[in-house]
Amino acid sequence: xxxxAIIEDNVKIQQVLSDxxxxxPDMELVLKSSSYEEFIHDWRGRHLDLVLCxxxxxxxxxxxxxxxxxxxxxxxxxxxxxxxEEKEKIFAALCAGASGYILKSxxxxxxxxxxxxxxGGGAAMSPRIARQVADFFYRKPAEINAEAELSxxxxxxxxxxxxxxxxxxxxxxxxxxxxxxxxHIKNIYRKLxxxxxxxxxLRYQDN
Length: 207
Hints:
By secondary structure, this protein is of the alpha/beta class. It has two domains: 2-136, 3-Layer(aba) Sandwich (Rossmann fold); 141-204, Orthogonal Bundle (Arc Repressor Mutant, subunit A). The protein is built from eleven helices and six strands. Strands 2-1-3-4-5-6 form a six-stranded parallel β-sheet, with helices on both faces. Helix 5 links the parallel strand 5 and strand 6. Helix 8 packs across helix 10. The longest helix is centred in the C-terminal third of the chain and has 15 residues, at 178-192. The chain is elongated and about 55 Å long. The two termini are 37 Å apart. GO terms for molecular function: DNA binding. Residues 143-207 form the HTH luxR-type domain. Keywords: DNA-binding, Phosphoprotein. Residues 3-119 form the Response regulatory domain.
């Protein structure tokens, strides 16, 4: 029996999801919370197989919750269920460890399919989200050429960012100013045609 938790601040949506999970023969709803803070207070380390998590929560976000969950138990799976379609939110959630990203416009049948896909070892995304991810990972010749234009210093900075260092930590490590680091990062984003740190980490996470 899969142990399921829900983090959702909309009372009606939380109730619909709770009722839906409760009637699944192979799932048990063991925890439901309306915020990140309520979740970490009530979780208390109990075993969870899958967490259905909204992004736009009061207080800390669902992305913060994903980071916390994976840090506490990397085996707990996370399915983001949200209204956000922005690329930055998608990549931030995936970087935090989410195994799926489904829009709230999805039907209960689609949500059930996504949950089973993730619990079976796969990944799940709404079609529009999957298209954005596919477009990002499609490497155009211009993008490949852009990587060849990276300076040795920029490559070094990317390596440190991949280790999870902040801009200040990178600056201290390389003995250069924070403004210089920001200048280099701006050039990296321009050359790679990306717009944020999450995209940078995803670009190089398997390299």
